[in-house]
Write the structure tokens for this entry.
Amino acid sequence: LDVYLVILNKTPVLMHFRWYHQTIPSVVLTSLIGNVSYEWPTIVSNTLLHTFMYPHFAGIWNVYPILLVLAAWQIIAGIGFSLYAIIFHCDGSFYAQLYGLFIYSTYYNVICIT
């Protein structure tokens, strides 16, 4: 839905937007298969972000500053909880945790580049 709203709003689909939407399904799937339970703060952050994103992309409500803060928080939460889980040996597959950390760190890199 996100991508369609951006296109309908005649907004360019930026690289970080494309990269995120192409990779997040693999993070979710890896977390489910790897029994990683600490992803819930990131999922809550993502849900909150989309609550503001849909009206913004539909042109109803301009909340760009809030979107920036929520997107940054989602990356910080993803990297932070992934690091915490690896350091303190939380439940779930180590490789699933490592993969999540890797993908979250690419979000930071892609956003800084674009």
About this structure: The mean pLDDT is 85. The helical segments are 2-8, 15-33, 40-57, 64-87, 94-113. The two ends are 22 Å apart (CA to CA). Residues 2-113 form one domain.
